[in-house]
Amino acid sequence: MNRGLVLRLESLVQLRGACRQLRALSYRKVWGAQWKPVQASAQPLCSVLLHPQPWQKHRLIRVASAQCRHLATKEETKKKKKKIPLTRGEVEIRQKMTIEELARAMGKDIDHIYEALLYTDVDLDSLEPDSVLYEDHIKMIVQKSGMKYKSAKLKEEKERENTDACFWHLCCPHRPPADPAVLTPRPPVVTILGHVDHGKTTLLDSLRKTQVASMEAGGITQHIGAFLVHMPSGEKITFLDTPGHAAFSAMRARGTNVTDIVILVVAAEDGVMEQTIESIQHAKNAGVPLILAINKCDKPEADPERVKKELLAHDVVCEEFGGDVQAVNISALKGENLMVLAEATVALAEMLELKADATGLVEGTVIESRKDRGKGPLTTAIIQRGTLRKGCVLVAGKTWAKVRLMFDENGKAVDAAPPGIPVEIMGWKDVPSAGDEILEVESEQRAHEVIDWRTYVEQQEKLKKDAEVIEAKQKEHRMEYKQQQQKLAHLTWRQRKAVLYKANKHQLFQRPKDRREMAEDTLSVIVKGDVDGSVEAILNILDSYDCEDECKLDIVHFGMGDISENDLNLAEAFNGVIYGFSVKANDSIKKLADKKGIKIKLHNIIYKLIDDLKEELNSKLPPAVVETTIGEASVLDTFSVTVGKNKIPVAGCRVHKGLLDRKMKFKLIRNGDVIWKGSLSSLKHHKDDAQVIKAGMDCGLSLDRSLEFSVGDDIICYEETEVQQTTSWDPGF
Known about the structure:
Elements: H1 2-25, E1 27-29, E2 35-37, H2 45-50, H3 54-69, H4 74-83, E3 90-93, H5 99-106, H6 110-116, H7 135-144, E4 148-151, E5 183-185, E6 189-194, H8 200-208, H9 212-215, E7 225-230, E8 236-241, H10 249-257, E9 261-267, H11 274-286, E10 290-295, H12 304-312, E11 326-329, H13 338-352, E12 355-357, E13 363-372, E14 376-385, E15 388-389, E16 393-396, E17 399-407, E18 416-417, E19 422-428, E20 437-441, H14 444-487, H15 493-508, H16 512-517, E21 522-529, H17 532-543, E22 552-560, H18 565-574, E23 577-581, H19 587-596, E24 599-603, H20 606-620, E25 624-643, E26 646-661, E27 665-670, E28 673-678, E29 682-685, E30 688-689, E31 692-694, E32 698-702, E33 714-723
Parallel strand pairs: 3-4, 6-8, 6-9, 9-10, 10-11, 21-22, 21-23, 23-24
Antiparallel strand pairs: 1-2, 5-12, 7-8, 13-14, 13-20, 14-19, 15-18, 16-17, 16-20, 17-19, 25-26, 25-33, 26-31, 26-32, 27-28, 27-33, 29-30, 29-32
Helix pairs in contact: 1-3, 10-11
């Protein structure tokens, strides 16, 4: 009894499974086209079950055996129910659902989704269960299924607590403003700005009694130097010597952001220049008072009054013209009036009443950063609050440090650095970026919390930007696909396949090496610098590259430190060139580079590096063909000669400029238009063949059998030479 019941149940289950499978077979997939329903003349269901065709027997057997396996346990049935929930009247949808996720949300199988997609322009051949659907397609599928949709509520992510550290003036609850009672006077931070080669570093040399300028490559400052100068009167002044070269605009801007006073150096014989105007703008943006130092007044051609008048056009009004800007005529080279300039700086600092809190947690700013082979990552910083000591835990950007050692500008170790004092800090885990804020935290654990939060914020911002780019790309590809489908809509599926195959045929049979050669007009570069500011300046110049149509410029990698083997591996992979600024490459690296055929270009002066880069760009450009005219002749008469059975047109010409050389190329000009280019078939003087016809001589020449001459035509003899093209990119200096 029980056995018969079980057999009956098995038969019912098999029959039900076969029916479901045959319903699915009512749609068949035509290769290369969309799903199409079988015609109405298909075999009836009962007929298929009773009298199956040979091509249907194996499918019925497979369906029956598959159904038998599903009767194994109750647990499998429960799992199946979990995967496909019961159909509801409302479906929760969200953006970027896959076909599988939508089928699960609707309580349908995947075939149902494919069936609904027949009403769209989606190419079903390209779809997989994990393919992402557009939102309008999702809504349409739900509606076609006789269901309603509603937007699923986004999972409210638990808001992460802000564990960042910040300056007190940014309303940070962990860093309240200092008590005015504990404020003490601090040295003023003075930034020296001006045009390149106007004597900024020489001025600082005279104040410090050192020879910094003589040690600089090309006599051009290419880093920010922070120095503490002790005046004879006992006051201390912290000076920042910024580069005046056009490439270092970001460094000058960074110098003004941490300064109290700006000394604007202008050469008396040159007057106001491009970087002079830029320096004035930096000072105005930072709200910093100016002192005008008119340098090189010892030269015969010096004209300080002209400088003062030129500055009026830029809203820099000296005291003698009723303004508030002090002007001092100096000679940095001879040391004239330097004490007057120093006294003017001290007087202005006293008027500003510069004070700081030397207690509590340290705050400062990274002026410059670099990597040292023995000391590791180092930063030059100016302390703005608190007193920095050994053992302090600092955070800057996305790195932190436990201060191991501190050095002054002369490389001597110091134990403490109060506000307004420049100091070099050793102990960083990684190199922070120039301009980053330095903040002291209570412990290493707190430092890790700050770094984790900043990394998290950066990741969230990157994800947001990436999502916007992806969405824009998807929209663009979708529009392109629609346009392509519209163009091919009148074709059959076989014709469409043939058209697409022909369009992409050239890529199918290309070797990987050939594909790489297609990008010969790309220059890949790797940039290495001694300090962060130098790399930043070079990258800012490269960002101004605007000649992508001539040759593409690809920055593969940039960083600080000497040339390493990793740089060589990158250059080999991308067929690139390594540019090093004030860095070294040891002998083993040079030998390995020679072996691999990799170019390493080392420079100490930034404009020479850029010139070298432009030459490398020029070498990537194809040579240009230049035509040089050798001779000109005019057609005086036309006739024809018979050679065999053919009549050949001949022009009787007179050379009136230069000469006609049969080895060179010729062109025929009629009414100002070039109607033919090529080589001569024959050149005769009277009846003799000639190689060269000089000016003033008559000749007969033939060009092409099918070309007719007209009286008044011009014959030009010219030579083609290949000339190396030069890039039209102008970096600005």
